[in-house]
């Protein structure tokens, strides 16, 4: 997509007021539902409240809570349940606290169906049919007619509770492979009674839920239904059925449709960084053509210009992203007040959000690029009692966050970076196809540090003697590639991953990547993608039938793992995507290979079948990282020294840990 300067500066469609049923909203930027891992935990309730309060102050026209289970078997760990009287106080208090700061909030009514984990609920999962879930590895109990009627009434009574407590609307979860979506899909609904078979039978429970809710709350209480626009599951609900379902939901009394995409079991990425921005927005557009109620859209809508484009094309009426609000609590305010350059954009890494949500047991959600997320009450935005002069050594992700956090607390900060550019490992990561969003993070830091008057000294190899006038030093010098002790590693055809990603070396034709962790997989993808012509060249070749210009460079790649595993250290929600992307004929994966010697002709090593040579004319080392040392111990007796990220510990390092440690160090000043 391309966007005009007028769209980027004005965002006129996003600014327009709108309505969902009787609910008047000041603009078109909503916050979608997401579990935070803080729900149903009384001891951290204030953290939950503070999270929502900040997003309300940040301009969200309407926020949708994480799913609130209508029945205990449809819930799970860290989830409110409407049948648990102990949760009533917290659900009622939450809406009142949000209203006190001027926010509006909808409660999402939720039932996991066969996606419920029995070890979390203490009871079996229930579904339309007893079909095993690839997600939970469990087989659910097939619901009886009594079970179905009990569930319908649970949705209705839950909606009435939400109305009595003062919620501004409700959303019924009928997407992402959860219970109501399971009834709609022929993959998971093999019933022979009135709740199965034809589309009319499969959508019956959803329509009865909507009608039962209407009987309880009346015609004027706003009701949003989150329906699946595309299951991304072969053999599931087809497009014609989806459109018919949307029309029937409108007739049953729904005020707006929030369009979900994909199931947890789907083999199509839906929210990861490899998904292009707004990739599924035309799915919502097709549904909008057949109904007369507002359409909400979310997947990979992470910037205001993308959102503006969707609205200007008439594809949807509101945007309701979730994770962009983790990255920046002021997503709407910044989008609507021409502060785009100060917007901390979600990079769709999944590392501190979905990887936490999907953990067993679930962990509290945070955000890689915004470590304060989920801990707002623990780290209030207030100036430090005493203004200090702080030196930050290193301009990678940890150093950038340390400088930002310290300056935001009123400290005078000087950031030293030995390279000519800020960014460190993020600048390398941004060169990997599918990770270009990291450039957004670098853009954000460059602007916010300027706004906070941080002095940035580039191309500066700082010496400890220059730091004697500072009150504290944060060492964020990061890491450098680990060079393994293999004979021949000094040969000229052996290079490191930064040399490849920065274009310092001319690539060979037969490449061997040693190391299959996250870096090794990233480098391999870079090598595969850069061998192919850019997408615009391929489009040009196809349009004018000049196929010769779209032929990829002939390049073979061998990816070598010492163990029998690969793609280790990558989060659960993205590992499968990486493995699938690297399943290509031009890539050879070799496992259980112990390197013995690097030779001019390749890598000699031990395999279970004996010693062999892997031929290559270039060997790329992705064999881990080591701490980039910076000696300031001479100052330690006089000045507090904080080491963060790779400078503290290079083992099992990731950006989430590095930026969190930097943030915490800045708050400890």
From TrEMBL:
<dbReference type="InterPro" id="IPR013785">
    <property type="entry name" value="Aldolase_TIM"/>
</dbReference>
<dbReference type="GO" id="GO:0046872">
    <property type="term" value="F:metal ion binding"/>
</dbReference>
<dbReference type="GO" id="GO:0051536">
    <property type="term" value="F:iron-sulfur cluster binding"/>
</dbReference>
<dbReference type="InterPro" id="IPR023753">
    <property type="entry name" value="FAD/NAD-binding_dom"/>
</dbReference>
<keyword id="KW-0285">Flavoprotein</keyword>
<dbReference type="GO" id="GO:0016491">
    <property type="term" value="F:oxidoreductase activity"/>
</dbReference>
<keyword id="KW-0408">Iron</keyword>
<protein>
    <submittedName>
        <fullName>2,4-dienoyl-CoA reductase</fullName>
    </submittedName>
</protein>
<keyword id="KW-0560">Oxidoreductase</keyword>
<comment type="similarity">
    <text>In the N-terminal section; belongs to the NADH:flavin oxidoreductase/NADH oxidase family.</text>
</comment>
<dbReference type="InterPro" id="IPR001155">
    <property type="entry name" value="OxRdtase_FMN_N"/>
</dbReference>
<feature type="domain" description="FAD/NAD(P)-binding">
    <location>
        <begin position="389"/>
        <end position="629"/>
    </location>
</feature>
<dbReference type="InterPro" id="IPR036188">
    <property type="entry name" value="FAD/NAD-bd_sf"/>
</dbReference>
<dbReference type="InterPro" id="IPR051793">
    <property type="entry name" value="NADH:flavin_oxidoreductase"/>
</dbReference>
<dbReference type="GO" id="GO:0010181">
    <property type="term" value="F:FMN binding"/>
</dbReference>
<keyword id="KW-0479">Metal-binding</keyword>
<dbReference type="Pfam" id="PF07992">
    <property type="entry name" value="Pyr_redox_2"/>
</dbReference>
<keyword id="KW-0411">Iron-sulfur</keyword>
<feature type="domain" description="NADH:flavin oxidoreductase/NADH oxidase N-terminal">
    <location>
        <begin position="16"/>
        <end position="338"/>
    </location>
</feature>
<keyword id="KW-0288">FMN</keyword>
<dbReference type="Pfam" id="PF00724">
    <property type="entry name" value="Oxidored_FMN"/>
</dbReference>
């Amino acid at each position: 997509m391309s966007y005009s300067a007028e769209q980027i500066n004005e965002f006129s469609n996003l600014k327009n007021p709108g309505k969902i049923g009787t609910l008047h909203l000041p603009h078109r930027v909503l916050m979608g539902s997401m579990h935070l891992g803080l729900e149903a935990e009384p001891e951290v309730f204030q953290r939950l409240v503070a999270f929502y309060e900040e997003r309300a102050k940040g301009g969200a026209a309407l926020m949708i809570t994480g799913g609130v289970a209508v029945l205990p078997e449809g819930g799970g760990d860290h989830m409110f349940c409407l049948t648990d009287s102990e949760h009533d106080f917290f659900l009622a208090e939450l809406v009142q606290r949000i209203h006190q700061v001027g926010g509006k909030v909808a409660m999402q009514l939720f039932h996991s169906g066969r996606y419920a984990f029995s070890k979390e609920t203490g009871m079996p999962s229930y579904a339309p049919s007893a079909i095993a879930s690839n997600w939970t590895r469990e087989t659910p109990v097939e619901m009886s007619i009594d079970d179905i009627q009990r569930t319908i009434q649970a949705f209705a009574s839950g909606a009435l509770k939400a109305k009595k407590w003062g919620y501004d609307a409700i959303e019924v979860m009928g997407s992402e492979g959860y219970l109501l979506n399971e009834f709609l899909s022929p993959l998971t609904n093999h019933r022979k009674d009135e709740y199965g078979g034809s589309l009319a039978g499969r959508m019956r429970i959803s329509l009865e839920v909507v009608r039962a809710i209407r009987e309880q709350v009346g015609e004027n209480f706003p009701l949003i239904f989150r329906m699946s626009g595309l299951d991304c599951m072969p053999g599931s609900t087809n497009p014609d059925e989806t459109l018919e379902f949307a029309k029937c939901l409108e007739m049953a009394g729904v005020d707006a449709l929030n369009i979900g995409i994909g199931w947890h079991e789907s083999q199509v990425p839906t929210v990861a960084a490899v998904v292009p921005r707004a990739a599924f927005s035309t799915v919502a557009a097709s549904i909008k053509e057949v109904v007369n109620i507002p359409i909400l859209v979310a997947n990979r809508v992470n910037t205001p210009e993308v959102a503006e484009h969707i609205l200007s094309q008439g594809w949807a009426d509101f945007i309701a992203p979730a994770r962009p609000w983790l990255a920046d609590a002021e997503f709407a305010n910044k989008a609507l007040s021409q502060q785009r350059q100060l917007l901390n954009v979600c990079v769709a890494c999944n590392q501190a959000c979905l990887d936490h949500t999907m953990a067993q047991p679930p962990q509290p959600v945070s955000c890689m690029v915004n470590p304060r997320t989920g801990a707002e009450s623990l780290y209030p935005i207030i100036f430090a009692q005493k203004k200090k002069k702080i030196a930050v050594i290193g301009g990678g992700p940890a150093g950038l966050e340390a400088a930002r956090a310290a300056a935001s607390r009123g400290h005078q900060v000087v950031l030293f970076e030995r390279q000519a550019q800020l960014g460190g490992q993020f600048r390398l990561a941004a060169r990997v196809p599918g990770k270009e969003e990291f450039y957004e993070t670098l853009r954000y830091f460059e602007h916010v540090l300027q706004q906070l008057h941080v002095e940035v000294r580039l191309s500066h190899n700082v010496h400890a003697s220059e730091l004697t006038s500072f009150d504290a030093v944060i060492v964020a010098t990061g890491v450098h590639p680990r060079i393994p002790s293999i004979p021949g590693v000094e040969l000229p055809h052996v290079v490191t991953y930064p040399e490849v990603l920065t274009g310092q070396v001319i690539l060979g034709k037969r490449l061997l990547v040693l190391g299959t962790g996250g870096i090794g997989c990233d480098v391999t993808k870079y090598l595969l993608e850069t061998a192919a012509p850019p997408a615009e060249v391929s489009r040009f070749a196809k349009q004018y039938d000049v196929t010769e210009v779209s032929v990829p460079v002939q390049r073979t790649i061998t990816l070598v793992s010492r163990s029998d595993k690969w793609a280790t250290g990558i989060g659960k929600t993205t590992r499968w995507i990486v493995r699938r992307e690297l399943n290509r004929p031009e890539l050879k994966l070799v496992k259980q290979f112990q390197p013995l010697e690097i030779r001019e002709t390749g890598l000699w090593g031990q395999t279970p079948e004996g010693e062999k040579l892997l031929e290559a004319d270039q060997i790329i080392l992705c064999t881990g990282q080591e701490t980039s040392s910076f000696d300031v111990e001479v100052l330690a007796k006089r000045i507090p020294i904080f080491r963060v990220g790779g400078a503290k510990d290079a083992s099992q390092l990731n950006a989430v840990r590095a930026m969190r440690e930097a943030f915490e160090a800045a708050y400890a000043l």
